[in-house]
Design a protein that fits this description.
This protein has 19 helices and no strands. The chain is globular. Helix 3 packs across helix 15, helix 6 packs antiparallel against helix 13 and helix 13 runs antiparallel to helix 18. Helices cover 76% and strands 0% of the residues. The chain is an all-alpha fold. The chain binds aspartic acid. The site of aspartic acid has 16 residues, from helix 12, helix 16 and helix 18.
Length: 431
Amino acid sequence: MASTRFDHHKLSGRILFALGLGLAFGLAINATIADQPWVQLWLLDGLFRVVGEAFVRLLSMLIVPIVFVSLVVGVASFSDPKSLGRISGMAIGLYMVTTAIAVVLALSAALIFQPGVGANPGAAVAREIAAAPSFIQVLIDIVPRNPVEAMAQGNMLPLIVFSVLLGPAVAISGEPGKRIAALFDDLNVVVMRLVGIVMTLAPYGVFALVANMAATTGWGAFAGVLKYVVLVFIVLMIQALVVYPLLLRTLSGLSPAIFLRKMRDALTFAFSTASSGATIPVTLRALQERVGVSNKVSSFTIPLGATINMDGTAIMQGLATGFIAQYYGIDLSMSQYVVVVMMVIVASVGAAGVPGVGLVLLAGVLTQVGLPVEGIALILGVDRILDMTRTAVNVCGDGVVTTIIARAENEFDESIFNDPDAGGQMMPAAA
Ligand code: ASP
């Protein structure tokens, strides 16, 4: 076991190293050879894209099996059906509270620092932004018509509903139920191992993703909108390093520093992939194996959070709304700000945690308060790096809420939390 632990630490270190190296390498390319056709064709759209996208696909490939299997195992183990209701209530409530804090912080920052006044975003990059589905449709779509359809399309909420219904059915089915439960228990172990195997490829995937972003974004994109970018970063940091630690400390009494250290793989993955959905397998693994949260709680709250909780995205939406209003010289009334807060909290419910979905949500918010949707073009050029950063905050928020609930429900193993080496056992045996 000792050598496995060593490997696990080594891998975490290598993933972080790959992140830094990718950033440096990408920036160097951007400053030197990025406009050469062969660099674009063979490196950025070639090697980096293949390695990066293949890695994100491998992670995405794990989402449906892991959510389905671990959730059935988790729900089948509830002896008291009321506790599932309690956990759902707490999760939805806390997810909404953290999002509300995030968007209020962002709007306040926008009002105080006025990032849109005098902004000069240069040539706006136009792009078609899809419309977000209506809230009523989102509510209807939560109920699965066909579980295979939900799985095939990776739709998290109907998949959660199906698994949550199947779990108790397994639990009350006597002998056949026991056999199925044992099968799912075994599958859960195997799928978690698969996560460990995919993780060994992470340094390459992370390097390619980050290098590609840095090579294509460069500094130029930031010029006229620097104030907006800096403000988004600062408010994201406040959420991650002040709001979450305060919540974690006051509601669960746990050390935020240890928590963040244990979540670092999940946060690195979230940053690199800009997808809280694709990060689900890594988030679950970090919470269960390193933080000490039970499968029972995390298998439910993490896929739920990846879909309905997007605090980092809420921060971007709040600041972007302020930015666009100020840029066009439009004053928003108090009631319009209230609409923004409500919209931001509600709209994220139906949105999958995938790259760039925040812009789709933003389009919905802008429409609601009568701001020009074309305004999004002003911030499009810098959105990828902000997307990556806010996704890390989204995932961090899911982890904090999950940990708080697990602690309140006695579904938390403090010895795992306090063990700096915990988590090594999830590596594949041969690694
Ligand atoms: N990429 C974010 C996520 O997956 C969503 C967004 O802000 O675009 O959580």
